[in-house]
Design goal:
By secondary structure, this protein is α+β, with helices and mostly antiparallel strands. 34% of the residues lie in helices and 14% in strands.
Length: 79
């Protein structure tokens, strides 16, 4: 909750009337791949993992965790 109230983080308003918040977040992330999504919702994390290039931040054992992006998304020359 402290991170959500931090003035350094920008909270964006939803411009989709009548849309679920999860749908709005996924749509915004598909359009612009510059976001880090912070959530503890397992269904939303599952949906976001299907979108390449989206880092997910969540709490795990009282610590902030950011999932690493797959190497293929980062631009690994091997793949």
């Amino acid at each position: 909750l402290r991170v959500a109230k931090d003035p350094r983080f920008v909270r964006l308003p939803c411009t989709h009337p009548g849309t679920y918040a999860d749908d709005c977040i996924c749509e915004r992330v598909r359009q612009h791949k510059c976001y880090v999504v912070a959530t503890c919702d397992t269904d939303l994390k599952r949906r976001l993992r299907k979108i390449p290039g989206v880092p997910i931040m969540y709490l795990q054992q009282h610590r902030y965790t950011v999932e690493r992006l797959p190497e293929a998304v980062i631009g690994n020359p091997k793949g």
